[in-house]
């Protein structure tokens, strides 16, 4: 896993290029969700920024606090991914205000939905698309759920496909939310986890999704619009909403299995994508930065052994492993030499007496201790990386 760099504060003169993983490979076998036995993810660093206390803060007030904090990361000349939803709308409104006053200049927005596009145009925010700007400096969006590792559920606004495309193309992805979005595990709010599917045989996939997560007590429903007809996304697809009785045990396995279904366009699990999450609560604004995000423009899993901090440890492991090979060869040579000498002395028991049995015992103990020492050293070195 790569060396983990935090999203710089708005005042920092340095910049970092951060990206995330969202592509998964189909799995041919049925999903068995298990709690992973080994979690190689590093801890999330949390820093708190206390806001001025307010007698009563509504949910909209909290969203605006988080949005205002996120906009501090925006610099003139940036290409920005503009999210969708009630919280993202506060971000877009703030950007329009700063452009109007001249505090920001030369901003280009890449909207993640038609309604965000309409709002941005009404505020005279210059817009573009991924085709013309495939490299995005910063994306800001809301989230429906945020777990302790900053994995997300998104898409209750129906824009999950475009959101994931834009945010995956961004160097940094900052999430804004109020504290009601925090969950212990994805699906833990018992609200919708959306899956975008093609209209063709949508019920076929609805049944398969329900069967896939039957151990989590899931209920799958086709999303309906205000007119009672099936909700149609900006990409002319349907959405199947999954309602979990119990949180998803393994989001990565779930994402792979969902993506493997023919006819599934995208799912609302945004895993390893958030650079930082800004959460507004009654006592202020809290910024959580995920330390497992490295500097990379590729959407590949971060390599555990490629970081600056871990390279030294890995190099030591390689040296230890090499030394062990040499030591093992030495012990084998010692055994072979002793065996040949032993044969000669066995012909003269009066000379050797009971010493051969003692030597046998010493060599056996040496071999056992040797394995214990090397195993313990390797184990401790690996624990340093994890």
From TrEMBL:
Name of the protein in question: ribose-5-phosphate isomerase
**In its UniProt record, which GO terms are filed under biological process?**
pentose-phosphate shunt, non-oxidative branch
| Matching InterPro entries | Ribose-5P_isomerase, Ribose5P_isomerase_typA_subgr, Ribose5P_isomerase_type_A
**Keywords, in A-Z order:** Isomerase
Query: EC number(s) per UniProt?
Result: 5.3.1.6
Q: Name one Pfam family in it.
A: Rib_5-P_isom_A
- Its source organism is Populus tomentosa (Chinese white poplar)
According to the record, the residues making up region (Disordered) are 1-36
Q: Which reaction does it catalyse?
A: aldehydo-D-ribose 5-phosphate = D-ribulose 5-phosphate
Pathway the protein takes part in: Carbohydrate degradation
The top EC class, named as a word, is isomerase
MF terms in GO: ribose-5-phosphate isomerase activity
